[in-house]
Design brief:
- The structure is a homodimer.
- Chain A has about 325 residues and is α+β, with helices and mostly antiparallel strands.
- Chain A has a seven-stranded mixed sheet, with helices on both faces.
- In chain A, a hairpin with a 7-residue loop joins strand 5 and strand 6.
- In chain A, helix 3 runs parallel beside helix 4 and helix 5 packs antiparallel against helix 6.
- The longest helix of chain A has 18 residues.
- Chain A is globular, with a radius of gyration of 20 Å.
- The two termini of chain A are about 25 Å apart.
- The model of chain A has no long low-confidence stretch (mean pLDDT about 95).
- At the A-B interface, strand 3, strand 6, helix 7, helix 8 and helix 9 of A face strand 3, strand 6, helix 7, helix 8 and helix 9 of B.
Chain lengths: ~325, ~325
Amino acid sequence: MPEEHIVATVEVMLGADLSGIDSHGVNMMTLYDQLRTAGKITMTPEVRVVRENAATALIDAGGGLGHFPSVTAMRLAIAKAKAAGTGAVAVRNSHHYGAAGVYARMAAEAGLIGLSTTATFSPAIVPTFGAEAVFGTNPIAFAAPTRRNPPFLLDMATSTVAMGKIKLASQAKKPMPLGWSLGRDGRPTADADEAIVSRLLSPLGGTRELGGHKGYGLAMMVEILSVTLSGAAFVALRLKRDPDAARHDVGHFFYAMDPDCFREAGAFEADMDEMIDALRATRPLDPAQPVIVPGDPEHAARIERAANGIPLSDAVIADVKRIASAAGAEFILT
Amino acid sequence: MPEEHIVATVEVMLGADLSGIDSHGVNMMTLYDQLRTAGKITMTPEVRVVRENAATALIDAGGGLGHFPSVTAMRLAIAKAKAAGTGAVAVRNSHHYGAAGVYARMAAEAGLIGLSTTATFSPAIVPTFGAEAVFGTNPIAFAAPTRRNPPFLLDMATSTVAMGKIKLASQAKKPMPLGWSLGRDGRPTADADEAIVSRLLSPLGGTRELGGHKGYGLAMMVEILSVTLSGAAFVALRLKRDPDAARHDVGHFFYAMDPDCFREAGAFEADMDEMIDALRATRPLDPAQPVIVPGDPEHAARIERAANGIPLSDAVIADVKRIASAAGAEFILT
């Protein structure tokens, strides 16, 4: 990879690991190496701005990993927001971009409201009334700047849970709550082993009566912003039409907005702090578990891990060692 | 009310009733009349653009009902999106604006992606780990244009269900699913009568293990966009600091984006139609209930009601009659 691609990719992966999002950091090396050896991504993509005006842009990622074009896209959205008030940047012909929250946080660190969404390369979420998966886990990340508190940071898959939680339930040999996944028969299942085979995640809300149609709608909103706006591939159609496509053509979306276009400088951040303080002071159900704010767990992990390091499982270390060895790269993680 | 305020208010209320959203149309007359007689809204507000650039604006609604300033705001967002690619308009000092989906649909009808969010004037949603309500039902509406199909239209409260569904369960004397509401003790309840008294709605996802923290995060995202960005009142703080405030200072957010800034003209709409067709063709769990797309029920209601009229309950008709009589207005709904 070109040097600046390496820097961006490592920064985004490290951002996930630092924030405690272990599933989207160095743990992803295995997948990325599989995609590379299968020829599904190029390590030397040409990333270029295809269309652009003062407030919008479209980037073609050139068929490589998503991190570098996505850092480029969010930086462009931030620059446009600083100049024009808002910036919307769509990315096509990309691949896995790591943790959505890393990009939204970039905007908040620049004093802006930030949003990022992404489609994924394999279907996971089943629409309401359906018995097959059509959307990826299609995350939404939204961040807003503060002064005294950590930034607000919502980073959520639009499925009820990520696949990782189902694997944990399987390892613990515990039944899952109904509403996490369907079995191969299309009905809600409590059997985690069955859910691992079926790969049929329920949209946020789970069953219809608990609002699963809303999670389905949010997953489709993410697909529209990430894929339809950029001209990337809608995964369910790509798999039907061209299952062996040379490129997975994943799409992403990035948005930044400057609060100072709406309010006096500093007023937005002051009100964010007041809202966050009020939330923390909400009467809790259990005094031992106060109300927290989206972004708090990630912020706590960043402080702890920046001081004490990022714990890696033996399995992850062995995987990285194997990949390094196969690539003829020195293994320095000892 | 000034004539143009009347026209906008009626159009938005009628849009909700036509779309089958009975809770947000003429049914709201009772609330609006209560607010008017209590002096909480003015019928002759001065609605003005306070700040503006090519892609953003802030509107002060002057302390009246939300419909007219919101139609003004979405029209402004649409005009900006047509000229600059995107338009973001925040509204402060407003009140109830009806059904969020009506505004998002305005953008789709203009060939644009549309988004609207609003805060509300009374708390309803309880944050994860909390035992008191801090956010309103804080809806998100998102729409996207198509060519052959009805536009995509997601219009959802960020609570698991609206209060109306709980009232229906109470009338039917049926237990509710856990995940709709908490009882006065802060624990999930299946008792609809208890839920009507407690007014403690669960965020989308319901319990923590089914992703309720995501619904909480979405409700807060809506509050930030609607209230913190515009400088309106965060309802939980307003009630603590100034429970008798002369104005409720509700905030809204409107956004429009032109797909033609990202793609060749018509490509976005063609891909939307393909995605919608693919969703309808998803293998269903029950062949008698095919997969539908967000916006389908509203679209079907619009066709049916435009042809056959809007059914009104005797209770709604009696309410409107009472309000008309008290205001010295002729009752013509016979």
